[in-house]
Amino acid sequence: MRKKIVVGNWKMNLNSEKAYKLLENLESISFPNDVEVIIAPPSIYLDSFSKAKKLFISSQDVSSNDNGAYTGEFSAEMLSSLNLKYSIIGHSERRQYHGEGEDLICKKARQLLKYNISPIYCCGESLENRKSKNHFQVVKSQLSRLLNEFRGSDFQNLIIAYEPVWAIGTGLTAQPSDAQNMHLFIRQLIDDKFGLEIAQSVPILYGGSCKPSNSKELFSMNDIDGGLIGGASLDADSFSTIINSF
Ligand code: 13P
To answer: Which of 43, 167, 218, 230 is 20 to 30 A from residue 209's alpha carbon, by CA?
Structure first.
């Protein structure tokens, strides 16, 4: 049985007063025991958020380097020293605004795995890709280095997040059946490489305008194991409705 996971990616939102208030709010809500709830706040809050009692905390990114002269970055070792267990990598906003590609993202994955931190590895096609019906090919190429250079045992410590870029922050959501088809496709890629047992164990999350009005239907799909939530994670009521919609 795969873990059910809901991640709130706060991106670059909330000043410290609002951030701590929302954390406090979320910590006071009771969530189903079988759902892992993860918050990815701006990195400036990670140290104090790491003391959260119920929620798991993730970073939104990590350096591909060990420690050293890399101004502005933070390392997997630093995340590990805060006892953090998750880090998002390869988000489409990092790909788009920081020119990140598979080579760099896989180096980040390697750093994280070295410190026993689960990468939440993002992939997803653009609207152009979908319109030209290249979406499966694009997602396959985004995952090919990961599939070819990592071992099955690494995949047991990894989460995939499928986030179609055209659905992020736009209010457009993938049809649950379209999202399911992509999730199944990703699981089959893992199956082809590492076999069914590993493929069945990897959580695959959906992200892109996931909200209280559509989360139930999305999460009811066989291969959708939860969500990576942006905008709707900034409101305690919306986020908790999403968490309760399995
Ligand atoms: P929205 O839920 O705001 O569309 O963002 C999704 C996302 O990018 C989460 O990482």
So the answer is: 43
Is residue 169 lining ligand 1, measured as CB closer than 6 Å?
Answer: yes
Whether residue 24 lies in the annotated active site: no
Task: Ligand 1 pocket test: pick from 6, 11, 234 the residue with the most ligand atoms within 8 Å of its Cβ.
Answer: 11
39 lines ligand 1 (CB under 6 A): no
Q: Which domains does the chain have, with CATH numbers?
A: 4-243 (3.20.20.70)
The mean pLDDT values, 10 residues at a time, for the chain of 246 residues are 94 98 97 96 98 97 97 98 98 97 98 98 96 97 98 97 95 94 98 98 97 98 98 98 97
CB < 8 Å & 24+ apart, contacts of 166-169: 166/125, 166/126, 166/127, 166/130, 166/208, 167/207, 167/208, 167/209, 168/92, 168/93, 168/124, 168/207, 168/208, 168/209, 168/230, 169/209, 169/230, 169/231
Of 91, 93, 100, 135, the catalytic one is 91
